[in-house]
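@channel sequence for tomorrow's demo:
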Amino acid sequence: MANHPYAHARDDRSTVKAVLGPTNTGKTHLAIERLCAHSSGAIGFPLRLLAREVYDRVCAIKGAQNVALITGEERIEPKGARWHLCTVEAMPSRPDLAFVALDEAQLSADPERGHVFTDRLLHTRGREETMLLGSATLEPMIKALVPEAEIVSRPRFSTLSHAGAKKLSRIPPRSAIVAFSAEQVYAMAEMLRRFRGGAAVVMGALSPQTRNAQVAMYQAGEVDYLVATDAIGMGLNLDITHVAFAGLSKYDGHRHRRLTTAEMAQIAGRAGRHQRDGTFGTLAGLGAHNPEFTDDEVYAIEEHRFAPLTRLFWREADLRFDSLARLIDDLESPPPRDGLATPPQAIDLAVLKRLSEEPETASSVRGHGAVRRFWQACSLPDFRQHGPETHARFVARLWQDLRHGYLGTDYVAQAIAQLDNPSGDIDTLQGRISAIRSWAYIAQRPDWVLAREEMAARARAVEARLSDALHARLTERFVNRRTTVLMRKAGGDAALLPVRVNDSGAVLVDDEPIGHLDGFRFVVDPLARAADRKLLLAAAERHLPGVLARRAAELVAAAALADGFALEDRGIVWRGSVVARLEPGKTLLEPKVRLDPGLDRLSTRDRADLITAISGWLARHGARPLAPLRKLAEIGRAEDSGPALRALLLQLVDAGGALPREAAGLERLDPRQRDALRRLGIRIGPLDVFLPAALRPAAMGLWSRFATLRGIAHVAPPAHLPPVVDGKSAPAGYRRLGVQALRVDQADRLVRDAHHKRLSATARLVFLDPAVARSMGLGTASYAALMRLAGFRVHMPLSLPEGAFGPLAPPLWDWRAPRALVAPPQARPAVPASGAFAALAELIR
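structure tokens (generated this afternoon):
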């Protein structure tokens, strides 16, 4: 029609070129060069994946601010962009573009989408140059429908040869296995995982991002095999040397049929890229289903000789929107010329006709604008592949909001959020990705969604998360990287495996983890197959001694700097792993160090160096906190200290620096020895004898740990040594007072304050303020118990006489020296003795 939207005006200098040839002829590369040589332009691709790939390449040449990507589900369109990479359906209708190209133009003969390609082939033109890229089978139709086009034939860069049938176990590396159902793809990938370590998977149902991730894994050499459907035949340029067909027939949506030779060649042509030759063949060993090429098919594929296309599918594109009936008539109108054919009913037309038969829906579509908008809704692609009936219900639900204007933002956001769930198996994730692609398409329409940019960004983010999850599931199910590495690097010889350890302790073979070091102990990856385990252990046995020796040297250096060491229970930990254990030593404060059994692989010299280094760290670690107790132990071992003083000092060391006064044996000390106690910082209190410097968290923590080694019964003190702890058991360094325990230095403070108050008072009865005790957390009953232990007696006030009001007088205290604190009676003067027992009596005194 004269007003066709793609009938671009062009000057006499405009040229149309049809660049035709088989795969691997550089047609797309040529189109990119021509696009970049013009001041503006667009290329239409059959797949969003291809549009995105070329978009990245053009951005690198022209700058991202000048390049647009336009697909159904994604629009990156900077203001003033001059070069556009699009899917064919999304190509812009702009007569001002200097260059226009149509890729894979032979898809004009495709029953489902062919009418779109045909329309662009007939009407889309660049102002200066138009390029039609496709198979040589398209040449007769180009001559008939676009007679002004200059036809340029391009030969294949490399040779494609038939290699016959091979069993899956004999397929060479860098091969692609092509199947035609998801079940067969999964079966082939599972067998390759068992035999060869795994395969990447490419199917049309995958999102572009997942396909890219799988292809990148293959291209990077992480796997040597690719299992794909016929989706591989469309534009994926991969490093493939051989293509093996697991079948030669497929279901095309209408019937189960054998592939055409052109379709076979399109897939087989993925083998061999640029100047490298490739081969193709079939899989053997599949029983009665063994596929086989005929001689004619082999000849046609190798020589690139195929039957020419005799028709292209066409559907009216210049539509009238006066009514639904007229719109349907236009869509079903017969082709205007020979060589064009009416396609099978596409899903957009099927949905339109189905909904137009519903009175409620049809009655809501009135007027030119409503009919156009309704047709746009019916043109929503069926990404979920649910068929016309289910897809029509989805479109009808959308139309309920679209007929009144925009889709509700909450409705769109909720629909996107419901799909934002990366859990589930492969099929579940594929279903969610298909659904989110529908919403990504919807969110791109500025006349459908108010917050278009926000909703589109949300949809893309959800698709990215789902794609990452699907890639992870596919890799987890169909790739055993460990087997791949072992087979590639070693075969069966562990000596050939390059082993290293990363910073986190993972043991790697060619950057693939096979286990980890727990301290100095090698632990095989629990996911390793039984067949791999022996080889992994052999590799570790062969290579780890050198690794462990280097780690031992690193530990010795770290011990000197106290870097990464800690004491936990009875173990010494370095960087989270136990490297040594503590055992009782000669004295309580000098435990021995025993290396963890995981260090048994080390040499005798390395083990001795480690014991010395760790023992040195332990001594330095406890030097400052335990210095007061060690000084007591040192003097307690000196002969000139006297038996009574030595006994008391060693008792204090064994008790952690605090003893009840009644157990200290003070009555056996002479004044010189008491002076020695004061010089050592030991305080003789009314209730306890204690060393304040030992009643600190670090000192008490180490003492408690070492006391446990020697079996000394005690309750471990809390880490921060609060003044008061609750409980019926008194930890070391505390005095029990009923249901509470008070640290002995705080008990000494309270008792001394009480005595100071008593001595400064003029009366016998004094008031003792319990405020300080309460500030420590000590209860009234516990405070009274402390005072009674110190010899104070309480006198409760008399109750008020009847009729009197006012507060009661506070309790008053008096003091009487406890029996334990009364000085022992003076010994009577010794009577000179003689006789047989005189010497014994002297020794007893």
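heads up for whoever presents: The two ends are 134 Å apart (CA to CA).
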